[in-house]
C-alpha cells in the first residue's frame, strides 16, 4: 500500500454524463455548512491511496474467486485490477484499504 500525493492538475479528468449538472457555488457552500465544513479549504493536493490488489489477495492466501466471493467483488473486476487494465473506483479503493487493514472484520461484516 502506498500513499501518493499528487496535484489535482496531474490527475486525469473525468467525463461527466451530458445530463449531469454541476453544482453551483451556492449549493456547494450550503452542503459545506450542513456538513460542518464551512471553513474547509480545498488545497491543490489530494491523497490517493493505491492498494495492490494482487499482493493483498496473496497475503490473505485467497484465489481470485475466493477473494471476489468473500468481499463481494465481481470476479472480472478483480482480474482487471490485478492485470492493470482498470483501476478500482474511489469507493472501492476505500473498501480495499479497509480490507488491507482489517480483513477478518470486513469478511465478518459482509457474511
UniProtKB/TrEMBL annotation:
<dbReference type="InterPro" id="IPR052359">
    <property type="entry name" value="HTH-type_reg/antitoxin"/>
</dbReference>
<dbReference type="InterPro" id="IPR001387">
    <property type="entry name" value="Cro/C1-type_HTH"/>
</dbReference>
<feature type="domain" description="HTH cro/C1-type">
    <location>
        <begin position="53"/>
        <end position="88"/>
    </location>
</feature>
<dbReference type="Pfam" id="PF01381">
    <property type="entry name" value="HTH_3"/>
</dbReference>
<keyword id="KW-0805">Transcription regulation</keyword>
<keyword id="KW-0804">Transcription</keyword>
<keyword id="KW-0238">DNA-binding</keyword>
<protein>
    <recommendedName>
        <fullName>HTH cro/C1-type domain-containing protein</fullName>
    </recommendedName>
</protein>
<dbReference type="InterPro" id="IPR010982">
    <property type="entry name" value="Lambda_DNA-bd_dom_sf"/>
</dbReference>
<dbReference type="GO" id="GO:0003677">
    <property type="term" value="F:DNA binding"/>
</dbReference>
